[in-house]
Amino acid sequence: MAFLEFHAVSKGFGAKGSRSEILTDVNLSVERGEFVAIVGYSGSGKTTLMSLLAGLLQADHGTALLDGRPIAGPGPDRGIVFQNYSLLPWLTVRENIALAVDAVFPAWSAAKRAEHVGKYIGMVNLTPATDKRPSELSGGMRQRVSVARALAMNPQVLLLDEPLSALDALTRATLQDEIMRIWSEDRKTVVLVTNDPDEALLLADRVIPLTAGPQATLGPSIVVDVPRPRSREALQHDPRFKRLRSRIVDYLLESGERRKQTLTRTLVLPDIEPEDITHKPRRPWMLGARQPVRRREIKREEVEV
To answer: Of the candidates 255, 232, 188, 272, which has an alpha carbon nearest to the alpha carbon of residue 40?
Structure first.
């Protein structure tokens, strides 16, 4: 039995009769300590899938299991890092992380919790910024706080919901390196969703494409047979990386083509006749004279004088 499993999971939104199914027949199997990346189009349902893993949403059909038990709601066994940081702006770096630690480990002494918080601040290289608030941090630093907060909860599974997509290329590369380093140290089970195949191949043990929506589903699992540690420079010249990247991109493009639909409908335009601006009254200087008129307003009459 796998550590994290989805069996024929489907999820939709909307009222009965107009409900739209976002995910359909999703099957997923993740082993303990494995790093899995799910790659898909924007709007294909990646965040919905992540919310189901986190327990923030419940499936309409199918079963979601963690370590053999149904996922019935959110819990400290799953730490999630969102795209938008989700930090409390009035708290410092230490206080944002301590808030999660205090909730998960209330039986610990204050000194032990403080030491634990400091350990994870150091892990993401933010010790000099410990007492700064989010408004005093760059986007990359805020995302590091979010990662540290999730890791400090000591979850069994770390869920990364496109955490780097809003960052510039240099900051994104730096945080990719941080995630690789942190994962290599404690080997937590990680599920990453992203729209970047290169990022997925750099970080993950396996990459699973998510087809274009609606009714998106997971495609075939692709094992990344590139040895670790990995460097971007080496990957660009590795034929295995190029082969895997082409396979992922081709699958996603094909799924997008299959989802395309042609809609033909008749547009009924309002029966409005435009005014004829070429028609001029004989005496434009007269008060109330209206220059443009519609053609059907022009009538010819014969008058005997």
So the answer is: 255
- Phi/psi class of residue 52: alpha, beta or left (left: φ > 0; alpha: ψ in -120 to 50)? alpha
What is the per-residue pLDDT across 252-261, written as a single tens digit (0 to 9) for each? 888 877 665 5
Tokens encoding 88: 């409390």
CA torsion through residues 60, 64, 70, 73, sign: negative
> Per-residue pLDDT tens for 87-106?
999 999 999 999 999 999 99
Which residues have CB under 8 Å from 171's CB, separation 6+?
A: 138, 139, 140, 164
- The model carries a pTM of 0.77
Give the model confidence (pLDDT) of 3-61 as tens digits. 999 999 999 887 776 678 889 999 999 999 999 999 988 888 888 999 999 999 999 89
